[in-house]
Fold this sequence. Notes:
By secondary structure, the chain is an alpha/beta fold. Helix content is about 50%, strand content about 10%. The chain has 2 domains: about 1-115, Rossmann fold (3-Layer(aba) Sandwich), CATH 3.40.50; about 150-215, no CATH class. The strands form 2 sheets. A 5-stranded mixed beta sheet has the order 2-1-3-4-5, sandwiched between helices. Strands 6-7 form a two-stranded antiparallel ribbon.
Amino acid sequence: MIVGYMRVSTDGDRQVLDLQRDALLAAGVDERHLFEDRASGSRDDRGGLAKALAFLKPGDCLVVWKLDRLGRSLPHLLATVNGLKDRGVAFRSLTEQMDTTTPQGEFLFHVFGALAQFERSLTRERVRAGLAAARRRGRRGGRPVAIDAEKMAAVIAALEGGATKAAVCRTFGIKRSTLIDSLARISWSGGAKLQGSMSDAPTTIDRESDRRPVQSAHGAA
């Protein structure tokens, strides 16, 4: 069975949709076996495509007017066609004259796969070269440090002096999640706590610590 799939980006592309329909019908697709989407090719939640793929059975052939009607990118197109092949379903694109049931179409499909792999390799190479150039200039990738080294030293001193995390957050203007992440990043365990819980519950000892002034890096709080 031959199954056709059509896609246009907007409802205003009526002429393009009619063009696809005429081409698919001329290729032998039954009107009852046509599926369509009116959505951007970048979307991965196309209901018409999902229905078409679910309708296909081994021995069937999925036909599109052009390759860009099916895949939102070359890797996505290759993944979709490979999935069809694994299910025993053939694929044809009328404009590019690609037909995976013929040796020429199979060869062209493998060429596309090689081009996709080449593109991924170039992308990885450019990323590595960019990171190396940034490191040579003293820049580091990733998220910026939330707490600088000077403030972190003052925070550690305050915590080791008995202040609670809540008091430190208020004094230094730090969010609790940021403080916890920063402490975990430097593997600070905090040593033995007077309270038995790591949740900084407001026990009597905690309230006493909260009243204790915390020394910041530039003077008393």
